[in-house]
Amino acid sequence: MANSALETTISKILEQTEKSVISNVESALNESLKTLDDSVPKLEQEYDKIIADGKKEADKIEKQIIGSADIEARNKQLIALEDAVSKVFSKALDQIANTDRSGDYSNLIKTMIEEATKILGTSEISVSTNAKDKDVVQSTLSQFSGAEMSSETIDCLGGVVVKSKDGAMRFDNTIDARIERLKPLIRKEIASKFGVGE
Amino acid sequence: MTAEGGVQYSKIAEIKGPLVIVDDVENAAFDELVEVETKDGERRLGKVLEVGNGKAIVQVFEGTTGLSIAGTNAKFVGKVMEMPVSREVLGRVFDGLGRPKDGLPDPIADKFIDINGEPMNPEQREYPKDFIQTGVSVIDGMITLVRGQKLPIFSGSGMSHNLLAAQIARQASVIGTQDDFAVVFAAIGVQYSEAEYFRRSLEESGALKRSVLFLNTADDPAIERIITPRVALTVAEYLAFELGMHVLVILTDMTNYAEALREISAAREEVPGRKGYPGYLYTDLSTIYERAGKLNGKKGSVTQVPILSMPSDDITHPIPDLTGYITEGQIVLGRDLFRQGVYPPVNILMSLSRLMKDGIGEGSTRADHGEISNQVYDAYSRAQEVRALAGIVGKAGLTEIDLKYMDVGDVFENEFLTQATDENRTIEETLGILWKIVSKLPKNEITKIKDKYVEQYYKEE
Question: Do A187 and B205 touch (CB under 8 A)?
């Protein structure tokens, strides 16, 4: 009799414990399902953020690579172009240096001296030139009263350097100086022949 | 270009500071370019400041150190200083006078333009109203920059304005259009390390190909700084109005420019104005700042962000003071925020973009932009008051709503203001953070935003 009562009690306790355990497990399951459900949007957000950040980073790196490559290519093109322009220049300068001094050249010298006297605002001038042009300049100077030939020769492709006799003013009208003044425009012309800057 | 000009004078009457006074000069013109040749054949550039009575006062950009009265010649070139411009200048680095500094040859010029620029006909100016995204939240969200605007950054010595300048240069873009965008960056009297940082920063980010850099470092002659912003703006105007690009010009540091101006003024023995700056400082600054804008019938725009460091952080100093009269607002960097380690340390309560209202909203950024910005401005202002109060009564003496405002202040500084130097935020992200800040407040505190936007974006925490 006593045994039966004890068994009943034990079985009741077992039943209650089982119920409580099952209920606990169920609530834990529900809770974890809820947590899982709640975390899905957060995870999705996180996922989207990681993807967006990754895309941003990829775009940044793409820009960097393309930018550097573009710059490098452009720089190489610039150097190649400059080489070509320099070659054209040096060839042109050679040709100018070897130009025949007869014919129209004396007219060019005359124009250069006229230009210089006009700019200096005086006809009391001293004219210097290179050894090659000395004769042409000397003969042209006879047309300019107040002008005299300087004893010093200068190193240039051609043309004249004109000074006022008091030495206060000087005008460089050599071919070298004229080329230097017009160099940016000449470079542009040459570059346009290579299809740049058109 | 003609063979006119080119007369060389050898009678130097006086050398005074950065000035050379040449005697017996005829036919020189105001602003004419002068090549000063030293005894050793070294050539320096200068320009005519004054002519008359057979004398010409020449300002030598590269300084007069080493020049002597005997043996120095001054050649008057017969033209004003010009900058050769073409599309090829993009991606190049020049010195403060516009000469290549990147070891590459001179760019093949499409045009030679007077660096003093042509004044914009006021009647032809178009009102600026298009948004520029800098990727810096505080600027895009609260002090929006608009194409054609001039918006200076007022900083102090040692603060992070150069980091901010480089970040803007790297990240700035125009959204919603396929138009080309370019950055012209002029560093005026900056340290060598800073100049290198700017160059490397643009190079490494790939932004150099759409940028032009003019670098005048601190060891370059001060007088060269007078020219640097002008050559930079000449290039910017060409890119904008001839090639139709949207150009952002960053000039840093304009204080060094004003100091160069003071040096010349002192050498000319002019009557000094405030703090020794010349009386015409305002007029002179306006000849730079006013070279920003948009023109009717032209596609491009020139937007200026001049940066100036305020001596002793004094906003009433003549340079920020006069700058503020000309420009359309200001971005002020705060010493307190800088000390807290906040980057960029923009003090929004002292900052303002006068043209912001025209460059934001529906069709530009987002319809709620203006209102959310106003609400955050208001909330941050209140947060500052609460912080001051907490300093007196302690946190325990604050009400619940006061504590929420304090929280708003912290989130504003830590999440909105604070940004990594390589973090490029879209306007959507920026507005998202602004809403996050506002969502810290209860709905009844939101008084500046329409209900429909509150419904759409407010997420109570």
Answer: no
